[in-house]
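Regression check, heme C case 143:
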Amino acid sequence: MSSRVHLLLVLALVQASPTVLADDDAQNRLTWMLQCQGCHRADGTATGDEVPAIAGQVSRFLHVDGGREFLVRVPGVATAPLGDADLAALVNWMLAEFDPDHLPESFTPYEAAEVAALRTRPLGPEVVPERQRLMTQLKAISK
Ligand code: HEC
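Current build output:
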């Protein structure tokens, strides 16, 4: 490839990328690929007993007390190397993308300030009993 053609290609890519990144859906999908799918897979399905399913499950937590907080305080989310606004957008996207059926009608999307506050209290080892507590509540209301 001549260096001139190469340069034109590079310029075309540089010009194209802001458009791609400005598309929220594409940006959130890319963030999922980079930060989350190593554990949660591209399609959000479970890995044995190790990693729970996001697909068809994750929005259920929004039906019980403490569930909304849990979804951000869970270590993989709270400690993700993302700004608060980007993390809020990612979580909103994840809920709609992987589990739209359980999304409550009254759901108010996460905003940066709420995410910022929740991230100051990331769950440590207590994530396991806290998750168990929420699952028990979900079972009780058959959600
Ligand atoms: C190192 C592996 C790993 C990475 C990376 C990871 N997670 Fe997780 N995630 C888990 C595990 C394991 C759990 C179960 C709770 C726990 O033990 O932390 C979980 C739980 C969750 C939950 C709560 C659902 C439930 O059923 O407990 C959400 C929501 C979530 N992850 C989203 C994300 C998002 C979004 C990202 C990327 C920013 C991410 N995770 C990155 C492993 C990971």
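Comparison notes: The mean pLDDT is 91. Residues 35-36, 38-40, 51-52, 58, 71, 74-77, 80, 90, 94, 127, 131 surround heme C (CB under 6 Å). No diff flagged against the previous build.
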